[in-house]
Design a protein that fits this description.
With 173 residues, the chain is mostly beta strands. The protein has one domain (27-169): Sandwich (lipopolysaccharide transport protein A fold), CATH 2.60.450. Helix content is 6%, strand content 55%. The chain contains one helix and twelve strands, in the order H-E-E-E-E-E-E-E-E-E-E-E-E. It has one helix at 2-12; strands spanning 30-41, 44-57, 62-72, 84-94, 99-110, 115-124, 129-132, 136-140, 143-147, 150-153, 158-161, 166-169. The longest helix is centred in the N-terminal third of the chain and has 11 residues, at 2-12.
């Protein structure tokens, strides 16, 4: 493992390549398989992720991940929250902007039993915003809703579902 980390560190120090002259030369500089990612914020684990394949373009800091899954532990400052796991067949984004587009069937699951699903979602990580314009469903213990789209402001705990929202409260009927 140490040898692998050393090789990756040395590779990262190589000079940036000249811009590609053809589509064949635009292949990612780094492609990893069976990847585990741990993200830290302020010395604490902010997320743990896995991907079957990760491609990273050094020139632009863009990435593309297949079979991506990220688990976000509950925040210490919010006692009633549970861990959240988000998965998608494809995740594409850019490190500097902390913007990630998830597609191919996005699913979010919480430890409290909430399950949300949509075809695509856009995460604006720097602002803590998540949005989507495709049909979205959310269900959990005693509730369910379906909407034509959604906007989530996670830091403000503001959740907007529109248009054409239908919901159900209480037990199964």
């Amino acid at each position: 493992m140490r040898l692998f980390l050393l090789v990756v560190a040395l590779y990262a120090c190589l000079p940036a390549p000249a811009p590609p002259e053809s589509a064949e030369e635009s292949a990612p500089w780094v492609k990893l398989y069976g990847v585990k990612v741990v993200s830290y914020r302020g010395g604490q684990v902010a997320a743990v992720g896995h991907a079957s394949e990760l491609a990273y373009l050094r020139l632009t800091s863009e990435f593309s991940a297949r079979d991506a899954r990220m688990r976000f532990p509950p925040r210490q400052e919010v006692a009633h929250r549970s861990a959240l796991e988000v998965s998608a067949p494809l995740a594409q984004g850019a490190m500097p902007s902390k913007r990630v587009e998830l597609s191919g069937g996005v699913v979010a699951r919480s430890g409290a039993g909430m399950v949300g699903a949509t075809e695509r979602a856009l995460i604006e990580g720097a602002q803590g915003l998540v949005s989507g314009k495709d049909r979205a469903t959310v269900s959990g213990p005693g509730y369910a809703l379906e909407a034509g789209g959604f906007f989530l402001d996670l830091p403000k705990e503001r959740y907007l579902f529109e248009p054409s929202v239908s919901s159900r409260l209480g037990g199964e009927r």
